[in-house]
Amino acid sequence: MTMSTAEPSAPSPSPALSASAGCPAAMPRTRGRSRLLAGTALLLLAGGCGMSTPPAAAPPAAVSSPAPVPSTRTLEPTPAPAPAPALTVAQARRIHEQYRRQLARARAADGAGLQHAEAGLALELSRAQERLRRLRGQPPAPPARVVSTRMIIPRLPSGQPRWFAAEVRYADRDDVVHLIFAESAEGEQVGGWRVVAGSATPADQVLPRLATTGQGEAQAVPAHATGLPVSPSALARAHAASLSSADSDARARRLIAPGPYTSQAAAAVRAERRALAGRWRLRITSRPWGPIYALRTADGGALVWYALREQQIFTAVDSGAPPLEFGRAQAATLAGGRAFSQQAHLISAGWFCAVLPPAGDQRARIVGDWYSALKVNGA
């Protein structure tokens, strides 16, 4: 059959108490009964120090020297960490070039070393694609020749991890590829940079012009940004709802335009359910996964990248159901020709690129993806 793949902290010091010169100014703050006793001792010590001579009517009393009271230093506020220096275009190009060298070495070594070039779901997708290639008996392919690149470096709030996008066009391909690089403390990339996300947008999909600052920087959009028809994070949830419901979720239909990743994917699911002829049930669960990257467009909208993970569960209605075989290429390869008699699971995941219009009546368009089947199992 054909598958659609779509601990509590220590108490802070109490405020300094006024006393004559040479007396302790403060005591550490404590709790409960200990706090009361410590406060009484402090008052007695402060009273004795405050008298320059004893009263005339009272003979001097022999008293033992009081135990020394620890002084309290004034705590200086911890300075905020300095923001990371802005990345230059030349640095971004070197990071991209080193990524391509790492990728070429990893492909020549059957995927060994990919973790030095990629991370997160991007690494998971590349490893899945390497596995599919080996299962098919195909030789490793070198990275495609680059025709042009554009480095898109956003201005980011202080303290936010740095990232940038490389827009790449390759020879013998008419699509536009975006690679999202993020900085990591690990890895062998320059400064710990790795590819963490990406997408390929077909030539028939129009990409909007990006907004820039006076210094030529792109403008990052927060995941929960307002002022748009829907925030980037809500868009990811709506797309997940569309895939889970075969495009029958009303809110998702209001927010996302029809297309290959919504209505057309749903049509394929409905056709597949008809082919199951009531002998197998298909349940789809899709959910957002990982961080979201977004850039402001010149018209006030946003170009957004988000990831989804999906599980398709096929369950036989009864013991007389015919065996289930996967017909779609990736699922069939992962299944290795195996037929399932009770239940089958297909796990997939991917990154999507979407265009969010400025606030108004227009709907979001999903224009590209990087998607793969990851695993097939069952009984």
What does this structure look like?
It is a single chain. This protein has 2 domains: 85-204; 220-379, Roll (Nuclear Transport Factor 2, Chain: A), CATH 3.10.450. The chain is built from 7 helices and 10 strands. It starts with 31 loop residues before the first helix and ends with a strand. The chain has a 4-stranded antiparallel β-sheet. A 4-stranded antiparallel β-sheet has the order 7-8-9-10, with helices on both faces. It has helices at 32-50, 89-108, 120-135, 232-244, 250-255, 263-275, 329-335; strands spanning 146-152, 154-155, 163-170, 176-183, 193-201, 218-219, 280-296, 302-316, 343-356, 365-378. The protein is globular, with a radius of gyration of 32 Å. It is α+β, with helices and mostly antiparallel strands and 379 residues long. Residues 83-370 form the DUF8094 domain. InterPro entries: DUF8094.
